[in-house]
Write a structure and sequence with these properties.
By secondary structure, the chain is an alpha/beta fold. Helices cover about 40% and strands about 20% of the residues. The chain has helices at about 15-25, 40-45, 65-75, 110-120; strands spanning about 5-10, 30-35, 55, 80-85, 100-105. A five-stranded parallel sheet has the order 2-1-3-4-5, with helices on both faces.
């Protein structure tokens, strides 16, 4: 299967998780941006119009959590795919808006790649 390349913004406050996910995505050719919280992510989104997918953790320090970030992203840029992850909360996939996936932690990197691929196809 050929991999369609995407610009992915990872929003994760745990550096080790963020870096390993970044490496896995870059390894297959995706362009990866990173933010430690939703506030940093919003700055990047204001300065970049080429983001295809936002991959965010739910629980983070800052002015908003990952769910609030996802809502802001959806309102500002409805075309961006969203992947939400958490090791604490479980979100019902049926309750998520269109073009949004939920991955429970711990996740395998192939699950992230599959979700990105799915979002790029819609």
């Amino acid at each position: 299967m050929s991999v369609q390349k995407a610009v992915v913004l990872i929003v994760e406050d745990e550096p080790l998780i963020r870096f390993t996910t970044l490496d896995a995505l870059e390894e297959v050719g995706h362009v990866v941006l990173e933010a430690a919280n939703a506030d940093e992510a919003m700055v990047l989104l204001r300065n970049r119009t080429d983001v295809d997918v936002v991959f965010t953790d739910v629980n983070m320090a800052g002015s908003m959590d990952g769910i609030q970030l996802a809502q802001r992203v959806r309102a500002l840029r409805p075309h961006i795919g969203i992947i939400i992850t958490s090791g604490v909360v479980r979100l019902d996939p049926m309750m998520l808006p269109a073009r949004t996936h939920f991955l429970p932690k711990p996740y395998q990197h192939d699950m992230v790649l599959s979700a990105i691929h799915s979002l790029l196809q819609t």
